[in-house]
Request: fold
Amino acid sequence: MLPDQDSSNSNSIDTLTKRNIRAICELEQRALKRRSFAARLSDAIVNHAGQMWTIALHALGFVVWMLWNSGDIPGLRPFDPFPYQALTSIVSLEAIFLSLFILISQNHAARRADERDHLDLQVNLLAEHESTKMLQLLRALCANSGLPEADDPEVTELIQETRPATLARELEQELPSTENSSKQSSPP
Reply:
């Protein structure tokens, strides 16, 4: 290949890659802007709660609370003596709310993953259609040129249109469901 052709090809690949990255970034930005206030709040809380500084801050708070309420430090009157019922209540409430925020964030992430899966499926179906059309055109060219590849049985099979609904039904019938697999794995 000539150097100019190689450079031109890499420029077009770079351009295509940059265009695709921009498109994906725009999709992500739109999805982030569409989030409700509750989703943004829960994402922010979950992001901060998952940081090392949050763990360190909690550990420091627990140590200070326990030392203060141990009664061993002169001048500090315990306000929540052992077994630290107030601390237990606060931590329990925090765990409940944090769990709810995590669930909200996970639900949002699952919806985004579903949207991406649908987009991926659409792109794959389009690519499958394009590949099938190219094989049909190549087969026609081979037949027109009298080449034996035009009668290749594998090509004949590959140029058949893919039917996603049929494939989905077959997968539903063949793949084990969680219900069926738990019945099969349990002893009689």
Q: What stands out?
A: The helical segments are 3-34, 37-49, 52-68, 85-145, 153-158, 164-174, 178-185. DSSP finds seven helices and no strands in the chain. The CA atoms of residues 54 and 60 lie 10 Å apart. The two ends are 67 Å apart (CA to CA).
